[in-house]
């Protein structure tokens, strides 16, 4: 079963605000250095035309985030959701609950009409929520003459069909004890740095962001040097953001497990494993944000080397406070816990 639709991102107001602020900033910079620009130099032409280039980029981002393409593919074992370059895979045995709500939203832009929306909410066994909202195309005239029409359309909507499709397969998949053995485990996880590594990365990137652009600007003592320093500064900033939350994943089959982080892949064969150890710990954030941080660390020992992988855990603290047993269950059902059990089963 496949569903394709477009939706408006919640980040659209932020994009508009940033676009306005950056536009005023560019205009202010150009006005302050206009007298120093040489009309015949390529750099001057680039600077003068920068509002045009930025305007094109801004409008492109606006239309992209106004009509983000989303694709849902429901297969026998998993639901895959794709938004641009991001892919989310939800396994049916990991689903704890699935529900659909409906709401009416007033038009946000002139020329639009109020619409009914259906909201699909999926909660997994780790208490992580996946929420998707889709606009419904209903005939208002038909609703006025036949109120039952709206109820019928709600029941026949694509999200309702998807919910039914998944619910029919959840008991089947949970009953198949060989599901994981046959299909393996493939997951993305939130890579965790301990505080020492995080400090080193932060200080290293900050030092590079300040020193390298300044050295370049001083070595090339003109506007070209300033432009190059600005580009280097932004490249280092982007690298710092990626390093803060590096994309990480693991893929385990019946013979080996592959870990991937920032393009670096580590393959470990089960035949080489001597010991598996999983530990849970709590880390205080150095930069306080009010967020608690539980971490799970999987240590895989082979004859030659010990491999250590750490991941952030997403815990439902409110429910755990009401029922402490839920915290234990979330630890037992974590991604690394499932991976450890799977590897141990394959090693038997």
From TrEMBL:
Keywords, in A-Z order: Membrane, Transmembrane, Transmembrane helix
Superkingdom assignment: Bacteria
Transmembrane segments: 12-37, 43-65, 199-220, 226-245
Name recorded for this polypeptide: Uncharacterized protein
Originating organism: Ruminococcus albus SY3
């Amino acid at each position: 079963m496949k569903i394709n639709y477009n939706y408006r991102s919640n980040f659209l107001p932020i994009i508009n605000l940033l676009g306005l602020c950056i536009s005023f900033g560019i205009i202010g910079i150009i006005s302050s250095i206009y007298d120093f620009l040489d009309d015949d130099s390529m750099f001057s032409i680039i600077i003068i035309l920068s509002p045009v280039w930025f305007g094109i980029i801004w409008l492109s981002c606006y239309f992209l985030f106004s009509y983000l393409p989303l694709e849902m593919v429901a297969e026998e074992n998993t639901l895959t959701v794709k938004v641009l370059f991001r892919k989310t895979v939800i396994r049916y045995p990991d689903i704890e609950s699935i529900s659909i709500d409906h709401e009416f939203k007033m038009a946000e832009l002139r020329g639009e009409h109020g619409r009914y929306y259906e909201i699909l909410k999926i909660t997994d066994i780790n208490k992580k929520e996946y929420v998707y909202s889709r606009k419904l195309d209903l005939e208002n005239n038909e609703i006025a003459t036949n109120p039952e029409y709206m109820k019928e359309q709600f029941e026949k909507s694509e999200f309702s069909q998807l919910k039914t499709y998944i619910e029919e397969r959840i008991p089947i998949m949970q009953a198949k004890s060989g599901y994981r053995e046959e299909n393996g485990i493939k997951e993305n996880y939130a890579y965790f740095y301990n505080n020492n590594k995080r400090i080193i990365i932060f200080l290293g990137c900050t030092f590079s962001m300040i020193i390298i652009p300044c050295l370049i600007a001083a070595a090339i003592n003109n506007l070209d040097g300033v432009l190059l320093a600005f580009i280097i500064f932004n490249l280092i900033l982007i690298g710092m953001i990626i390093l803060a939350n590096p994309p990480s994943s693991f893929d385990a089959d019946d013979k080996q497990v592959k870990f991937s982080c920032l393009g670096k892949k580590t393959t470990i064969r089960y035949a080489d494993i001597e010991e598996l150890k999983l530990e849970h710990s709590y880390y205080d954030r150095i930069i306080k944000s009010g967020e608690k941080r539980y971490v799970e660390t999987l240590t895989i020992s082979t004859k030659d080397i010990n491999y250590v992988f750490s991941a952030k855990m997403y815990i439902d603290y409110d429910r755990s406070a009401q029922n402490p047993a839920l915290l234990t269950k979330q630890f037992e059902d974590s991604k690394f816990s499932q991976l450890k059990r799977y590897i141990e089963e394959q090693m038997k």
